[in-house]
Specification:
The strands form 3 sheets. The protein has a 6-stranded mixed β-sheet with strand order 1-5-2-6-8-7, sandwiched between helices. It has a 3-stranded parallel β-sheet with strand order 10-9-11, covered by helices on one side. A two-stranded antiparallel sheet has the order 3-4. Helices cover 39% and strands 11% of the residues. The protein is an alpha/beta fold and 437 residues long. The chain is built from 15 helices and 11 strands. It has 2 domains: 206 residues, Amidase signature (AS) domain (Amidase signature (AS) enzymes, Alpha-Beta Complex); 119 residues, no CATH class. Helix 10 runs antiparallel to helix 13. One of its GO terms (molecular function) is catalytic activity. InterPro entries: Amidase, Amidase_dom, AS_sf. This is Amidase. It comes from Psychromonas ingrahamii (strain DSM 17664 / CCUG 51855 / 37).
């Protein structure tokens, strides 16, 4: 018996063309209007959207924003194709970040991509991912590219770079802020679902506050720093930037892991309690020690405190002055020397490669002696002792992210003062992370 294949008619050709284009435009509309949150993406993936289509939408958004200060390197088509091929079938149990595009700050290694820390003479290409990046890839996430940064992560306003400076996502007159700014902007503009930054002095949190996203500084040691260029290694951690708390939490769960090859890594001892206790105490600065500059900020802070009250929290006002001594040590004292320790050998050979203000800050470490270092450490050790009586009676500390806004016009005449002021609340408890719970 002979089988005869019917020739396609003009009508059937038109129907097939129309059907395929309806599906295509449906997907385009879905992705164009899609909020870049992880749950939203996985929902459209269940409806047939492919990882390749998601990546193309991510790249299209990147192109449309057209801020050349955000990315230093964008993954090649062959790199992205391989990442998509390696994904395997849609399985959120096995890969909870399946198909999720993300960006990596350019002081964190990503395999076969350049790492520069915004200093071309420092440039290298590694064959191995930073440990945190490798874990996120195992969870199904796809690296879109490397984001620029303030050179060697030494900057509190996002402008200390020899490369183009990006714009704040909310108001171009504001400083974009902090060295992880470009990672924050990639999220704020909806180019990626999350990004990795670093956080030594608020880079993952102040940046997020100024660009209307969520920034998480994990407990020190809970995320491996192997494959991350250090700034102040005793205070550094990879930070997570996302649109929602839920997304930041999921990403953290995927990359939170003890790394036996990182001497600063700490074992994980189990999840924190997920349920809010029926009564808990929140400590806030009293009226004499609260530092807030503008009425609008004070109003917003009071609204935040009202949210705590609605959750039946007991608010207790405390003298915050002992806590303010910690960031002063970081910005005005010996921890500048730790920045020099991380780069001393490179600077000795490539001093002219440093951005001018970055060079001034790091070189200022030479004015400190070894005895200064010990005295600063003794002082820091005494500060938790001063606050122990407070900390044992409370569950949460509630502070604003920063005292006030800083505009680009504020920076020219005084490059360091406004920077340090932005960090007033950022390192209050870093030295209390003795154990990873």
């Amino acid at each position: 018996m002979h089988h005869v294949t019917a020739k396609p008619t003009a009508y059937s050709i038109a129907i097939n063309w129309l059907t395929s284009h309806i599906v295509y435009y449906r997907i385009v509309i879905m992705l164009t209007n899609l909020p870049f949150t992880i749950d939203a993406l996985h929902e459209v993936c269940r409806q047939g959207v492919s990882p390749d289509e998601v990546i193309q939408e991510s790249l299209a958004r990147l192109t449309n924003i057209a801020d050349e200060g955000i990315y230093f390197y964008v993954a090649s088509s062959s790199q992205l194709s391989k990442a998509i091929t390696d994904l395997g079938p849609f399985d959120l149990e096995l890969k909870p970040l399946w198909g999720i595009p993300f960006a990596v700050k350019d002081n964190i290694d990503a395999a076969n991509m350049p790492t520069t820390a915004a200093c071309y003479e420092f440039h290298y290409i590694t064959k191995q991912d930073a440990y945190v990046v490798s874990l996120l890839k195992l969870a199904g996430a796809i690296v879109i590219g490397k984001t620029n940064l303030d050179q060697f992560a030494t900057g509190l306003v996002g402008l200390r770079t020899p490369y183009p400076a990006p714009k704040n996502a909310i108001d171009s007159k504001l400083v974009p802020d902090r060295s992880s700014l470009r990672s924050a902007l990639a999220v704020a503009h909806g180019e990626v679902y999350f990004s990795l930054g670093t956080d030594t002095a608020g880079s993952g949190r102040i940046t997020s506050a100024l660009n209307n996203i969520v920034g998480l500084k994990p407990t020190l040691g809970s995320i491996s720093s192997r494959g991350v260029i250090p700034t102040c290694r005793s205070l550094d951690t990879v930070s997570i930037l996302a649109l929602t708390v839920e997304d930041a939490s999921l990403v953290y769960a995927c990359c939170r892991s003890y790394d036996k090859k990182d001497p600063f890594s700490k074992p994980y001892h189990g999840d924190a309690k997920q349920n809010m206790p029926t009564d808990f105490t929140v400590a806030v600065p009293d009226s004499t020690s609260l530092i807030l500059d503008e009425p609008a900020q004070k109003k917003a802070y009071e609204q935040a405190l009202n949210c705590w009250r609605q959750k039946r929290a007991k608010l207790v006002e405390i003298d915050f002055n002992p806590f303010y001594e910690v960031p002063k040590l970081l910005y005005e004292g010996l921890w500048v020397a730790e920045r020099l320790a991380a780069l001393e050998h490179f600077i000795a050979k490539h001093q002219s490669a440093l951005y001018s203000i970055t060079h001034v800050i790091i070189e200022s470490a030479h004015k400190f002696s070894a005895s200064d270092a010990f005295n600063a450490r003794y002082h820091l050790q005494a500060l938790p002792w001063k606050t122990t009586s407070i900390l044992t009676k409370i569950d949460v500390i509630g502070v604003p992210p920063m005292p006030g806004l800083v505009y680009k016009s504020d920076i020219g005449s005084n490059a360091i003062g406004p920077n340090s002021r932005l960090g007033t609340y950022t390192n209050l408890l870093d030295d209390d992370h003795k154990k990873y719970h």
